[in-house]
Amino acid sequence: MRAMILERAKSPLQAVDIPIPQPQTGQVLLKIQTCGVCRTDLHIVDGELSKPKLPLILGHQIVGTVVETGEQANKFALGSRVGVPWLGYTCNCCRYCNLGKENLCDRALFTGYNLNGGYAEYTVADERFCFNIPEGLTDLQVAPLLCAGLIGYRSYRMIEDAQRIGFYGFGAAAHILIQVANFQQRQVYAFTRAGDLPGQEFARNLGAVWAGSSEELPPEALDAAIIFAPVGKLVPAALKAVDKGGIVVCAGIHMSEIPSFPYEILWGERMIRSVANLTRQDGEEFLALAPQIPIQTEVTAFPLTDANQALTALRNGQIQGSAVLVIE
Ligand SMILES: [Zn+2]
Ligand SMILES: [Zn+2]
Predict the structure, then answer these.
(1) How many CB atoms within 10 Å of residue 36?
(2) pTM over 0.85, yes/no
(3) Taking ligand 2, which is a single-atom ion, which protein residues have CB atoms under 5 Å away?
(4) For 30-44, what is each residue's pLDDT tens digit?
(5) CA-to-CA dists, residue 36 to 9, 18, 63, angstroms
(6) From the CA of 192, how far away is ligand 1's center (Å)?
């Protein structure tokens, strides 16, 4: 099969032909249709996340068809359309797993990081961590829901009943979550890089009540903010934008260093928290909600062999919505 391989950090992916993997006990073999490109993939390529499996096939927003099943794999019929997310395995016995916090599992393995992912024609996956994909969404449209959507949704749930919500970074996750916020009649304030007028326009077109630079304060104090961009200086910026009791959620897996800030911007029972990974329950809930809204994703498609170009476009802020690889 054709695959795009990361041989070492800070080097471009290489197009290679390798054997199709064999499904082991409890695994399904998927023929991949699409795979979303995530900022986490960039962090892995850039060496900002320690200890990926190498060589590695990136990609953790996989939409594929079950073409073979391993022993004791009986969750999906042959021909089923399934999604493979970031969470690829948990131990089911550590204290986090026992508390229903499998996203924090001590022995978790992640797709496209510890396990080969979806920048390829085929992949194997543990069927217990694969999702049924709802009808009515194309392979292209549904791919970004599998990370931007459902880890975004976990972040969104952390802001509780906030009505005025700031999104710092208006990319793949924000353009999905604003549709949930609109559906629930909450107001989104979109913050982009200074001067990113197309990004601000994109946010307004999707229903943001205000869009501006992350260096500005919003016209009203916010109830909560979610930081999607991997930029530590946005933490004090968001703290200044939220009202007393406000919640600031850091949604990314990596962030540049957070600069020191005066205690008074945290005072007033403001909170900062991070969100890590997903649970299977997050995925089931979000994939049930998405068709009810219904969520429409804005997608830029790239052929598999243009994965490096897709990553570069994401790095340079040239993608509106999500980048998705299409496997012919
Ligand atoms: Zn991701
Ligand atoms: Zn565990």
Answers:
(1) 29
(2) yes
(3) 90-91, 94, 97, 105
(4) 999 999 999 999 999
(5) 20, 21, 9
(6) 19
